[in-house]
Amino acid sequence: MPQVLPNFSNSVKLKYVKLGYQYLVNHILTFLLIPIMVGILFQIILLGPEEMLKIWQSLDIDLVQILCSSFLIILICTLYFMSKPRSIYLVDYACYKPPVTYRVPFSTFMEHSRLILKDNLKSVDFQMRILERSGLGEETCLPPAIQYIPPTPTMEAARGEAEEVIFSAIDSLMQKTGIKAKDIDILIVNCSLFSPTPSLSAMVVNKYKLRSNIKSYNLSGMGCSAGLISMDLARDLLQAHPNSYALVVSTEIITPNYYQGSERAMLLPNCLFRMGGAAILLSNKSRDKRRAKYRLVHVVRTHKGSDDKAYKCVYEQEDSEGKVGINLSKDLMVIAGEALKSNITTIGPLVLPASEQILFLFTLIGRKIFNPKWRPYIPDFKQAFEHFCIHAGGRAVIDELQKNLQLSSEHVEASRMTLHRFGNTSSSSLWYELSYIEAKGRMKKGDRVWQIAFGSGFKCNSAVWKCNRTIKTTTDGPWQDCIDRYPVHIPEIVKL
């Protein structure tokens, strides 16, 4: 009998071939420069000191030339360092943790739905099916005004929720960092749906008696990605104002936005959105480099609002009965996918190693010239980042990004567990996810973090952070009493 050859693909570890290719391409300059430097050094040794002295004397360089050259080098270096963008550091951040009394188990939520929508049992059943597949757990929280029968979404109750969430997060941040109110130079508050007069930023200025010359900004109507828009604005302001601190507050106030009608597309936010908020301290001071947790590397923003479908896929409006709510379009996931594609096309060249960019380029050229049916090469973003914080907007959002970016279960663990424990906390969800990674002790010095968020309009925004120091597991934060229980298994359907 002829000898059967082994299966080559099984006997050879192809993953090591890929790793070798990546290492070679990403360090190609090193491999090219080392032989050249060795050759030059070897040639110098062969010439000897006498020959080298003759070459130096033949150059005929006088003192004036040396001084002029030195001045030119110093001038170029000065201009370079003056024009170089300032480094932006994330000193620390704090997330709001609702009290136990605000928790809304599934049974409580459904009981309230039956009482509020007693004349429309089909809407009650719809909410139950959504909740069963939502990925939320039994410990998510809603403000007291929403838990009343009937709900009382008054302006006073909304202001009360805003004060509790925002002030609690800022107090915790000040305690962590030791910063005082007078030290804050820039204040940015983002809240999409609740925009009172005076603004929420004015409310913070009044509470903490911030300086009269503070640069204060209030962002509203920008959806769940407003937190990263705030980071972009803070970065630009810190570039323009040296030696400054910027306080960024991201939240969403639930009280005035609880929908009490029966339109299915407008009932979805009731099932997903929960209380949450975060306060973040940014600095451009060089002395904060050592104590800061992260350094901001990139912010990339993508806007698809020129398309009518994208503009209206998350839309605040009145239903047929005149009740106001947020309408989530059935095309939301398709539009989010297009926005994500545009965003990663922009951020890819900034973060991907050369090995991935070359493979992507060759595949693109092959599809254009040889065969358009070739499968497009999806870059491996795991080569660029150690951690991923995907906006916990819902189970479908996390599933779609995990599939498109070819991420493992561990890469999306922080997003899934944040959705399970805290629900969709809008723009602040990214910071609960980052806190989860830290609470698990996974954040090491040099690790890179990719935050991705989607928002109405329609927008997809990204931020890239680099860890400044290995972060020890903390005893405070929103996960302090439950991190040992996570990760938990989240079934596809929780039968209620």
Defining traits:
9-stranded mixed β-sheet, globular, 496 residues, single chain, 11 strands, alpha/beta, disordered N terminus, two-stranded antiparallel sheet
What do these coordinates show?
- The chain has 496 residues and is an alpha/beta fold.
- Helices cover 45% and strands 15% of the residues.
- The chain is built from 17 helices and eleven strands.
- The strands form two sheets. Strands 3-2-4-5-1-6-11-10-9 form a nine-stranded mixed sheet, with helices on both faces. A two-stranded antiparallel ribbon has the order 7-8.
- Strand 7 and strand 8 form a beta hairpin.
- Helix 5 packs antiparallel against helix 6, helix 8 packs across helix 9 and helix 16 packs across helix 17.
- The longest helix has 31 residues.
- The relative contact order is 0.13.
- The N terminus is likely disordered.
Helical region count?
17
N- and C-termini, Cα separation: 63 Å
Task: Please trace the helix and strand order, writing H or E for each element.
Answer: HHHHEHHHHEHEHEHEEHEEHHEHHHEE
Mean pLDDT: 87
- Going by helix content, strand content and strand pairing, the class is alpha/beta
**Low-confidence parts:** 1-16
Helix content class? 40-55%
Query: Radius of gyration over alpha carbons?
Result: 28 Å
Sum up the overall morphology in one term: globular
Structure summary, number of beta strands? 11
Describe the main β-sheet briefly: 9 strands, mixed
Percent of residues in β-strands? 5-15%
How is the largest sheet built, in terms of strand order?
3-2-4-5-1-6-11-10-9
